[in-house]
Amino acid sequence: MKRFWSWAAFGFGFCYFFLPMVGMVEFSLRMRRGTYSLDAYRSVLGDPQFQATFGYSAVMALLTIVFGVFVVVPTVYWVRLKLPRLRPLIEFITLLPLVIPPIVIVFGYIRLFNTSSLLPMTGSAFGTDVLLMLGYSVLSLPYMYRAVDTGLAAIDISTLTEAAQSLGASWPVILLRVILPNVLVAVLSGAFLTFAIVIGEYVFAALLNRPAFGPFMVWAGGNKAYEPAALAVMTFALTWGCMALIQLVPRLFKHQRAHR
Amino acid sequence: MAFLDLSNLQKSFGGNHVVKSFDLGIGQGEFVSLLGPSGCGKTTVLRMVAGFETPSAGAIVIDGQDITTQRPNQRNIGMVFQAYALFPNLTVAQNVGFGLRIQGVAAAEARARVAEMLALIGLPDLGARYPYQLSGGQQQRVALARALAPRPRVLLLDEPLSALDAKIRVSLRAEIREIQQKLGITTIFVTHDQEEALSMSDRVVVMNDGRAEQIGTPFQIYSQPSSRFVANFVGTLNTLTATILDPSAGEVGMAGQALRLSAPIQGAKGSQIALALRPEALHLQGHKGAVLGQITTLPAEVTAVEFMGAVIRLRLQSGGQALALDTFNRFDHAPPMVGDHVAIEFNPRDLIVLAA
Ligand SMILES: Nc1ncnc2c1ncn2[C@@H]1O[C@H](COP(=O)(O)OP(=O)(O)O)[C@@H](O)[C@H]1O
Ligand SMILES: [Mg+2]
User: Fold this and answer.
1) Which of B76, B85, B146 minimises the CB distance to A159?
2) Which of A23, A150, A174, B208 has the smallest number of CB atoms closer than 10 Å to its CB?
3) What does the pLDDT look like over A105-127, one tens digit per residue?
4) For residue A2, is it within any domain?
5) A237 lies in which domain range?
6) If you average pLDDT over every residue of chain B, what do you get?
7) Which residues in chain A are closer than 8 Å to B99, comparing Cβ atoms?
8) A166/B72 Cβ within 8 A
9) What's the gap in Å between A249 CA and the centre of ligand 2?
10) Please, are residues B259 and B251 in contact by the beta-carbon 8 Å criterion?
């Protein structure tokens, strides 16, 4: 009896989650009257605006990842090594972007960095791009921080650091040759999450008025019939692809098995 | 002047005085062990030599050069850790070559040195493996090769055998000592295992509560312990109480007998004195060739028999004192049984006088 109810609950959840998706996929295939076709996908992929905005967001995502790695890895490393008492505080700070709505953050940015401020970053397209990238880094911080922190917890960083030091390594060498390679898997999983977040992000890009993929999806949703469904399916596929990579990557690194 | 000189070395963590005025001079090529119970400051001394901790006071001098404030990556001191600490993302060969790469040694020369090191530790064919593919003993040998490859001035080992199985521990002990002698490298070895310290070292430093309690050869440490702490920590010990009869003649009274020690003693006639006797200095009466020279005999009752292979340890009760006696296991003599009354003998010259 207990069994029955757990299966019933599972079945309900499954339907609740997947039926809309099935409907969406089905709808995205119906652009050509009377038969299933991939016309909607062809139309989306051929749209120059799609190509431009997707390319823009992809580049922003990569920059965000690079920036995040170079800020988060050394910070987490240093805090774990030298300032372990500060860890709760750092953890709290990295959680803030989940608590504060993006709209509040971006209004704060616009107030602080508008054209009549001391640091008028919104005055130029490049400055706004930098601001947007920094904003994305903040949004992805909770995920990046946690991924890297977990990665560093799996290795004995203080002993490895001391071993490297006794062999003559300086701090940059330790970070690049000892720490980073050993948290690469964790960094990559943080990176895929970041990519998924940045690709779909709407609020920052819209309010800073940059030609990103999120605003394009919203615009398409209001102006086209079948393409938004195709876009949504593709975005889902992309996000799930990132998740699958997170699962897959550790298997490609043989030496990591020692820790699992 | 010693090759490695630690003078008045001190370290406090907050108000906790962990190392209190530690002095030690180590000759070039010498193998010195720091031996002491857990928490007595051995690791802290070693970490100060390596540069991972800054001394609160005192100086560290290598080959005439004061390195007290030098950073660890500039000291050229090799270190082996209890937890191996191999870089998990690098192969064995890359691990061993890590220090050479940092020194900027040319690739061909580095490859040759790595091969030489792997041969030295007896793992010439494992260069392409990753650390997780090795046993603990193999990993620790690789860690040793990695520390030795850049030709450090001093080698430090912090309980390198503690994580290993008993058998490997004993064989690796001999191997480390052999490599150390082959290379003639000045070495400090930290351990809480007296057998390790005594079997490997040129000299042993017995540490207690942040101080060097006694420094000497393994023979001196074992046979002439300078304090009750050293005597107790290094080996099993019977402690006996006696009354001083004649200090200048070294004569004491115990169990109604007068015993003559090997040297005069300090203390007033009629006062109590603490004496110690190793279990192997006590013998069962009737075992041939047991005791030479002057003999003291005591009656005793067997309270326990511990069979340890070649040796049998008897726990005895004699005149209100608990004693341990080691005797060789002999085919022609069944060991006594619990409850047996036996006579035990010793030569009073084997008695060790303990400072209070
Ligand atoms: N970084 C540190 N901070 C505070 N106390 C420490 C630190 N390192 C060691 N201690 C203390 O110093 C004492 C000696 O430690 P240690 O040198 O590791 O002893 P041993 O190696 O002989 O077991 C211990 O009581 C330990 O708690
Ligand atoms: Mg220790």
Assistant:
1) B85
2) A23
3) 999 998 888 888 888 888 888 99
4) no
5) 22-259
6) 90
7) 167-168
8) yes
9) 38
10) yes
**Domain for residue A11, yes or no?**
no
- Residue B218, pLDDT > 90, answer yes
pLDDT digits (tens, 9 = 90+) for B134-157: 999 999 999 999 999 999 999 999
What is the residue with the minimal CA distance to atom 11 of ligand 1?
B18
B131·A257 Cβ contact <8 A:
no
User: Predicted confidence band at A260 (pLDDT cuts at 50, 70, 90)?
Assistant: very low
pTM score, whole prediction = 0.84
In this structure, how many other beta carbons lie within 10 angstroms of the beta carbon of residue A20?
Answer: 10
Cα B2–chain centre separation = 21
In a domain, A216, yes or no: yes
Tokens, residue B136: 């603990």
Query: What is the domain count for chain A?
Result: 1
Q: What is the largest CA-CA distance in chain B?
A: 77
Neighbours of A187 (CB within 10 A): 21
This model of the complex carries an ipTM of: 0.84
Query: Is any ligand 1 atom within 6 A of the Cβ of residue B39?
Result: yes
CB B13 near ligand 1, within 6 Å:
yes
Confidence of residue A246 (pLDDT cuts 50, 70, 90): confident
Distances (CA, A) of B272 to A8, A204, B351: 85, 87, 15
Share of chain B above pLDDT 90, in %: 63
Q: Looking at beta carbons, which residues of chain A come within 8 Å of B85?
A: 156, 159-160, 162-163
A192, amino acid identity: F
Higher local confidence (pLDDT), A172 or B269: A172
Q: Which of B67, B87, B130 to mutate to test the interface with A (most CBs of A within 10 A)?
A: B87
A144: in domain: yes
Residue with tokens 């060789």: B328
Residue whose pair of structure tokens reads 């003999």 in the numeric block: B295
Is B50 in contact with A166 (Cβ distance < 8 A)?
yes
The CATH number given to whatever domain includes residue A236 is: 1.10.3720.10
